[in-house]
Structures are given as structure tokens and as C-alpha cells.
Amino acid sequence: MSADPAQDPTAALVSLLNLDSAAGAQTDEEIFVATPVRQPGKRIFGGQVLAQALVAAIRTVDTVRSVHSMHGYFLRAGDAALPITFGVQRLRDGRSFSARRVHAYQNGVPILSMIASFQQPDDGITHQEPMPGNIPEPESLPSTADLLGRFDHPVAKAWAYDRPFDIRHVDSPLYVENTGAKEPVNAVWMKTFGPMPEDPSVHQAALAYASDYTLLESILRPHDLTWIHPGMSVASLDHAMWWHRPVKVDEWLLYVQASPSASGARGLATGKIYSRGGELVATVAQEGMVRVPSDVGNRVKGAVQKKLMDQKMRRWKA
């Protein structure tokens, strides 16, 4: 569903996951390029860079091997108006596992550094944490368009109509108000608006894209914060993800999130992603920077105090 009928969000997602090979350009890395896509703001959505970096790594691995984990650091904010160059290094190709290092570059410097690991199919022991019970069905919950479509603001319109995923909050959403229980938990149903290609690796990359949507809300919720809290600054610092079982992102998935800790203007959030049938398909962890105006004041105060103490120490030593 899109405010612009010519723009199909699902088709846009498939397009951004289709990287160019940079016309054979290569250094000690294998090079891929992603062209800019429309964004509601100046910064690139972190999930986009994660997904595209993963696609670049997938392009260099035997198709029989599927990604099972990735660990990435967001190093700089990405510019949504510029293309992204991805450099892939082949770290290892063993009997069962392959490892790839991917850097995403803009203006000649990395904005993301990631290592991903791949495994060929194998049998082994099996267990999983069960999906929570008493979760309302996704069809009974309002969509983002239902919640934000009435607001005449470009970011609200983009979130309501241009995202490729239909996101439905089990708990009260934090777009403009925080009315639910003030606990460090969050849960959403999600799926793409339209059907995706059959390629399993496309579904895995698309899940990486969506895994960055709401994860930090588990950090905001207990502190009565919303996404429009005045003066608040939020940014993802790192992102880790493990794929456990096959996944289809064009079918409903339950994303259950929790924050075990927040301190030092950082919060940790973890997430478990289940199929509608109850299979645990992936686990996610992310640390985010969360600064509210009081954090800024404390940092300035601390810097002033340190400067005064340094001056006193210099006088004492003299």
C-alpha cells in the first residue's frame, strides 16, 4: 500500500536488494553497488544497509550455503542521496562453513562493517523457546497506515504508506504517545505487503531489513518515551542476527522484543522472530544510543567538571 500508486513498496524492497556488480570493478574486495532509494529523511535506514551488505556477501558464497549469522557495526550515518559501495572479502571457505567480511562505503569511508557466516545444510539436535501465548491475531490489530495515515507530515506518510512491511503492534505503538505498560518489552506482527521472490536468500535479507524496524522500542517503552520525544536522539550502534530455520517474509511473523539493560546513554534490545505456526526462525540483538535532553546536559556538565579538574591538577603540579 503506497501513497504513490506508481511506487509498489514490495517491488521497491526487491529492487534495493538487487545490487550491481560495479561492472567488474575489484580490488582485494569484490565490489557491489546499490543505487539510492527514496527515504523519508536524509539518513539511510539501518536495516537497508544491513540487508544490502548481506546480499553482497551472499553473491560470493556457494548457493547451497545459507546465512546463519551476521554481526555488524554501524560506523557512520549513511547519506540517503548517495549510492553505497559494498566490498566483500572472502575470509574462509571450509568443508561446512563460509565466512565473509563486508564493508559498506560512502565518500570513501565505511558506514557499516559486518561479518556473516554461512553453512551448508546439516542434521543435528533441535529445540527452541516456544512462542508466547495469548497474542492477538495480526488481522485484529491496526496497521501503521491506520495509525499514521491521518497525519500530514512527510515522515508519518512515508511510514504509513511507503514501507515494504506491514507492521502491526501487539503493544501500544510509540509513534506519538506511550500509553501502555511501562515495561521493557515490545511485540509486533510483520510481513511484506506483497509476495516476494521464491529465492530463500531474498527472504533472509528482507528479514534482516525488517529486524531493524521496532527493536529499540523495548528500550523506550519503560521510560515513557516516544519516537517524537522532543530533543531525543536515537541511533543503532550494532546489530547481530541468527537465522535458525527457513523463513518467508511475505507471511505473518511475530517479532517479540525485550530490553535487559539501559545505561550510559545506551540500551540493549533482543528479539525473537516466530512464524505464525510457532517456529522460532531468527534471533536478533542490537545496542542503540538513546540520548534525551537530560543526557546532553549531563554530558556538558561532566565535560566542564573534567576541564576544571584538569586545570586544578595542572596548577597543583606546577
From TrEMBL:
Catalytic reaction list: a fatty acyl-CoA + H2O = a fatty acid + CoA + H(+)
Organism: Arthrobacter pigmenti
Keywords: Hydrolase, Lipid metabolism
Subunit structure: Homotetramer.
Any one Pfam family match given in the protein's UniProt record, by short name: 4HBT_3
InterPro entries to which the protein is assigned, alphabetical: Acyl-CoA_hotdog, Acyl_CoA_thio, HotDog_dom_sf, TesB_ACOT8-like_N, TesB_C
Ranges where the Acyl-CoA thioesterase 2 C-terminal domain occurs: 177-289
One GO BP annotation of this record: fatty acid catabolic process
Protein name: Acyl-CoA thioesterase 2
Taxonomic superkingdom: Bacteria
Domain spans labelled Acyl-CoA thioesterase-like N-terminal HotDog: 40-119
MF term (GO), any: fatty acyl-CoA hydrolase activity
